[in-house]
């Protein structure tokens, strides 16, 4: 499974929905799972983004479908960043470096 | 411990350093750990940001210091987002403050009678106990107009309402309704702030108060307008909240909007000495002298703009305030020479 950081901002419509139905926050997680992905961590944040989600998905296609599905409702604007654990990435870069010598 | 999310973009120098030694990718984590942060997750990302770190640290200051230190070394830009666990966030949304009121029945004859009967219990006994003495000047200013009015005063203490009501002639006092913050005085039971679970109906009936929703826009004035149409007087602290500074806070426009629309005069009452008895944030009460200087009524010309009217009201209270600051509380008298 690949990891993705999903940064999202609520639209005005989204804020209204959230205030009226706070339970939607968790309902979205179930929808994410039904599409084959999994939310591993989720935070409400203050500042440039309203939510930061760490999501695992099997492929880029699944993740793309997920962002289109969630974004199409007009309640959130999404920025998705493919991510990898820093430790693994450092190991990978170090391995490449040694391989090139 | 509070959680934070740090999004960072590497500078050219940072990228060169990482390319030279991938171990430098761990610098953000190392810097945060120097500030005793607990790293929950750490990712290298593709796209708008290069790095995303989720961490916990004891306070905002440490988080910010850690980020600043990192910014000076290898990141071009970083964004620190204080984060709340989603379950907690949902709970917070659900704990919305719910208020009750206004209660239109508060102007009926039986409600006014109940208020009169409870006056000693609700107000006068505290005035008698803590205001040593309550010095009132300028009562004659209420004879300079006919009909109802809006009484305004500067606000530094919860006891200001006592001082204000205690200073008014009986004819005004028996038909005045005081604006009060809805989120403090009109919380419905279970409304989210247990320590303030008062009975809104009690405040409407005995206190003669009505709720004002902070930031509620023009709709929050509807009930005030209705009261004025019914011939009631209004009591409002136009600063909106209790001031802790020596200077009066900027006035909200609500009083001007009401006075201009309903064509009623505004009577400023300058209160002094009240904050020494019970300052904002204190539960301790120290008896002392209080001054209530009733100023001349403020009338407004037709066509006057709201900001100008607000300025006029502000000046009517700020002038005695400045005099009192320079010469002492007695100098707040309306025809001071």
Order of helices and strands of chain A: EHHEEHEH
Number of helices, counting only DSSP H or I runs of 4 residues or more of chain A: 4
Q: Quick one: CATH class of chain A? A: Alpha Beta
Structural class of chain B: alpha/beta
CATH-assigned homologous superfamily of the largest domain in chain B: Glycerol-3-phosphate (1)-acyltransferase
Oligomer: heterodimer
The CATH H-level superfamily of chain A is Dimeric alpha+beta barrel
Total beta strand runs of chain A: 4
Radius of gyration of chain B: 27 Å
Report the helical percentage of chain A: 40-55%
List the helices and strands and how they pair.
The complex is a heterodimer of chains A (101) and B (337).
Chain A: E1 2-10, H1 12-20, H2 24-34, E2 38-45, E3 51-57, H3 60-71, E4 76-85, H4 86-100
Antiparallel strand pairs in A: 1-3, 1-4, 2-3
Chain B: E1 3-10, H1 12-20, H2 27-34, E2 38-45, E3 51-56, H3 60-71, E4 75-85, H4 86-94, H5 109-117, H6 119-130, E5 131-137, E6 150-153, H7 160-167, H8 170-173, E7 176-181, H9 182-185, H10 200-205, E8 209-212, H11 222-229, E9 233-236, H12 254-262, E10 266-272, H13 274-277, E11 288-294, H14 306-327
């Amino acid at each position: 499974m690949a990891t993705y950081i999903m940064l999202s901002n609520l639209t005005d419509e989204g804020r209204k929905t959230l205030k009226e139905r706070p339970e939607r926050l968790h309902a979205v997680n179930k929808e994410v799972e039904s599409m084959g992905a999994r939310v591993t961590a989720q935070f409400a944040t203050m500042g440039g983004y309203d939510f930061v989600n760490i999501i695992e998905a099997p492929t880029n296609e699944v993740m793309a479908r997920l962002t289109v599905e969630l974004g199409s409702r007009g309640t959130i604007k999404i920025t998705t960043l493919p991510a990898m654990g820093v430790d693994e990435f450092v190991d990978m870069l170090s391995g490449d470096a040694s391989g090139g010598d | 411990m509070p959680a934070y999310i740090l999004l960072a973009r590497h500078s050219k120098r940072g990228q060169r350093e990482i390319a030279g030694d991938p171990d430098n990718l761990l610098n953000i984590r190392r810097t945060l750990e120097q500030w005793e942060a607990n790293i929950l997750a750490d990712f290298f990302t593709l796209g708008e940001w290069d790095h995303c770190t989720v961490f916990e640290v004891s306070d905002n200051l440490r988080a910010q210091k850690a980020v600043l230190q990192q910014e000076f070394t290898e990141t071009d830009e970083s964004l620190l987002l204080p984060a709340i666990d989603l379950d907690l966030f949902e709970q917070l949304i659900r704990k919305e403050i719910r208020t009750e009121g206004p209660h239109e029945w508060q102007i009926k004859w039986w409600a006014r009678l109940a208020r009169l009967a409870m006056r000693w219990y609700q107000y006068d006994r505290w005035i008698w106990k803590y205001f040593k003495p309550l010095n009132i000047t300028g009562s004659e200013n209420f004879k300079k107009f006919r009909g109802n009015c809006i009484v305004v005063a500067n606000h530094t203490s919860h006891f200001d309402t006592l001082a204000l009501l205690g200073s008014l002639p009986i004819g005004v006092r028996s038909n005045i309704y005081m604006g009060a913050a809805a989120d403090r005085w009109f919380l419905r039971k279970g409304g989210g702030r247990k320590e303030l679970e008062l009975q809104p109906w009690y405040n409407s009936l005995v206190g003669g108060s009505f709720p004002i929703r902070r930031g509620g826009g023009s709709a929050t004035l509807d009930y005030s307008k209705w009261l004025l149409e019914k011939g009631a007087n209004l009591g409002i602290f136009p600063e909106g909240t209790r001031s802790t500074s020596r200077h009066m806070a900027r006035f909200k426009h609500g009083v001007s909007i009401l006075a201009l629309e309903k064509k009623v005069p505004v009577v400023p009452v300058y209160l002094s000495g009240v904050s020494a008895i019970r300052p904002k944030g204190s539960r301790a009460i120290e008896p002392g002298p209080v001054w209530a200087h009733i100023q001349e009524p403020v009338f407004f010309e037709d066509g006057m703009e709201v900001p100008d009217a607000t300025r006029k009201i502000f000046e009517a209270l700020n002038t005695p305030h400045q005099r009192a600051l320079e010469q002492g509380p007695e100098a707040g008298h309306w025809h001071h020479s």
